[in-house]
Amino acid sequence: HTKENGGNRLGIYTEALSSKRVERFNMETGLRYAVERQELVLHFQPQVSLSTGKVYGAETLLRWHTPDGKIIQPDEFIPLAEETGLIIPIGQWVLEQACMECKRWINAGMPALVISVNLSALQFQQEHFPDIVRKVLKDTGIQPHNLCLEITEYTAVQNLEHSIRMLGELVDIGVKIAIDDFGIGQSSLLWLKKLPVHTVKIDPSFILNMIEDSDGDAIAKAVIEMSHSLGLSVTAEGVETEGQLMRLQQLQCDRIQGFYTGRPMSSDHFIAYFQEISNWVG
Ligand code: C2E
Ligand code: MG
Ligand code: MG
Ligand code: MG
């Protein structure tokens, strides 16, 4: 009797497991063709300078529009893209497209803004990655200082020696470097001093409750002060309220990015957004 039950449970278990496997397999197959089938879509989230109130630039965020009409968020497919190596062609496509859009905005009469692009650890590990960046800049005709590459704190500290060399080469090209998701990783601040980076992005988890949560506030304050003392600028991510904006302004945070100043939006919406904001600020 117990054996039978156990057997059943095992049956249910393996069934659930294999349906997970099937799901994963289907997603992997779909992702393999997503670039050529033009199912990947870039959104752009404004970054606003707190001292001027002007739009500083935008972060490029990837979405996957599947053939059955679903929109899949990056948290759901980037990990799989990384495990399978598909992030290499996908990431390259994102970099090219982002720079092309930036050029399109300039052609539409906007001033040259800073376009940020997320890099996966795998891309960052490619020894010839700086060549890829040079080629994309040349092909799209945007200036190096209009491109910011974001790597996570976690990626940056994985292999410090490699990071120092790779970031040095990228900075020599003239692009900007931001450390993403700052604060949730190892959080030893000493290594920041060793790396040639321009900007630190405070993770939304510290900003979302910073008004109610004194720890969040203390961490934001410490990161801003430390970054400034190292000559780095700070972008706070996940700003959703005016209260957070005002507190960050008080703490002399350089820039904010969050739903309060704008959700991730299509490239055309971003052009319209920019024009609207500019009319406001004057
Ligand atoms: P990230 O680079 O830290 O991007 C910021 C994430 O915070 C975005 O999520 C954005 O929509 C979200 N966010 C922005 N403002 C707010 C806010 O006010 N409140 C809240 N709750 N969330 C906010 P998203 O677009 O889902 O992207 C998630 C992550 O996926 C990104 O985190 C990044 O690590 C990764 N990702 C996105 N696009 C790419 C890409 O092209 N390449 C790579 N390698 N990773 C990407
Ligand atoms: Mg999301
Ligand atoms: Mg990012
Ligand atoms: Mg982030």
Please sum up the structure shown.
The chain is an alpha/beta fold and 282 residues long. The chain has twelve helices and nine strands.
Label this structure with key terms.
282 residues; alpha/beta; globular; binds ligand C2E; binds magnesium ion
How is this structure best described in words?
Strand 8, helix 11 and strand 9 (255-257) form a beta-alpha-beta unit. The chain starts with a helix and ends with a helix. The relative contact order is 0.12. Helix 3 (87-107) packs parallel to helix 5 and helix 5 (129-140) packs parallel to helix 7. It contains twelve helices and nine strands. The longest helix is centred in the first third of the chain and has 33 residues, at 2-34. The radius of gyration is 21 Å and the shape is globular. 54% of the residues lie in helices and 19% in strands. It has helices at 2-34, 74-84, 87-107, 121-125, 129-140, 153-158, 160-173, 190-194, 204-207, 214-229, 242-250, 267-281, and strands at residues 40-49, 55-65, 71-72, 114-118, 147-152, 176-182, 199-202, 233-237, 255-257. It has 282 residues and is α/β, with parallel strands linked by helices. Strands 1-2-4-5-6-7-8-9 form an eight-stranded mixed β-barrel, surrounded by four helices. One magnesium ion binds next to strand 6.
Number of helices: 12
- The neighbouring-strand order within the major sheet is 1-2-4-5-6-7-8-9
SSE topology string: HEEEHHEHHEHHEHEHHEHEH
Unreliable stretches: none
Name the ligand types. ligand C2E, magnesium ion
Distance between the termini: 79 Å
- What class would the helix/strand composition place it in? alpha/beta
The pLDDT mean sits at 91
Major sheet description: 8 strands, mixed, barrel
Oligomeric nature of the chains: single chain
How much of the residues is beta strand, in percent? Answer: 15-25%
Q: What spatial form do the alpha-carbon principal axes imply?
A: globular
- Rg, Cα atoms, Å: 21 Å
Total number of beta strands: 9
What level of helicity do the residues show?
40-55%
